[in-house]
Specification:
The protein has 236 residues and is an alpha/beta fold. It contains ten helices and five strands; from the N terminus they run H-H-E-E-H-E-H-E-E-H-H-H-H-H-H.
Length: 236
């Protein structure tokens, strides 16, 4: 009986180990978020992890970037409900190792943000943090991907896709065409359309301006959480 129990326990442990290894191989970003140290990242404090060879001065600058990005998100939403980990890579090898691709940054499972060497700035960090914050506030409701992306551009103040704050109209590229609502379709379309982010940002910024600023987004979230459909709430 004891031998059978040992075999059963050993089998269960083996299954758990196999499952963990499977996740690490198939979804390295998920595994890296769960255990940054397992991927060679060191805790800089405030939930920020970076490569151990990151110079102290650069590490302080990185912490400053994240703090400013968090401030932009908090200013827009009137506070933050999310507290994601931030995994920052200063080399391409590090970013590939944790599952990154050719993007500057990415939100992972709405629990973390990964930043590539090309994304270590306030705009990219606040863009990705905006995605996480929106998801933290949506309780059962949902938004189309174009709105999610356009809102992240607005929150981050990305000058590539919006005119400066304070402009009468921040829209740079207006369009009435249907924008991708699903994440997969958005990624596919964005790869070949350099205006897509600007078009989404234009649509969102004009709606926000016409409806009282950031409180319009908070109201939209509340109504979606109450069961209303996005197309009913969002009226361009």
């Amino acid at each position: 009986m004891r031998r059978r129990r040992r075999w059963a326990l050993g089998g269960a442990v083996a299954l758990v180990v196999a499952a963990v290894l499977g996740v690490a191989v198939a979804f390295p970003s998920v595994a890296a978020v769960a255990c940054p140290g397992c991927y060679g990242l060191e805790d800089l404090g405030d939930g920020v992890y970076a490569e151990p060879e990151t110079p102290a001065v650069r590490g302080e600058r990185l912490l400053g970037v994240v703090r400013e990005a968090e401030r932009r998100v908090a200013d827009f939403y009137g506070g933050r409900r999310s507290s994601p980990r931030v995994l920052a890579c200063v080399t391409d090898g590090c970013y590939r190792r944790i599952g990154g691709g050719g993007e500057r940054g990415v939100a992972v499972l709405n629990r973390a943000v990964m930043l590539s060497p090309r994304g270590l700035d306030v705009v990219i960090a606040s863009h990705e943090l905006s995605h996480v914050e929106l998801r933290a506030r949506l309780d059962g409701g949902d938004v189309p991907q174009w709105f999610n992306e356009g809102l992240a551009v607005l929150v981050s103040g990305d000058a590539r896709y919006l005119a400066p704050a304070g402009s009468p109209d921040r829209c740079l590229v207006a369009s009435d065409k249907a924008l991708p609502a699903e994440l997969g379709r958005w990624r596919e379309a964005a790869g070949g359309d350099g205006n897509l982010y600007a078009e989404a940002a234009c649509r969102v910024s004009r709606w926000v301006t016409a409806n009282g600023g950031s409180r319009a987004v908070l109201s939209l979230i509340d109504r979606l959480n109450a069961g209303e459909e996005f197309d009913t709430v969002f009226q361009p």
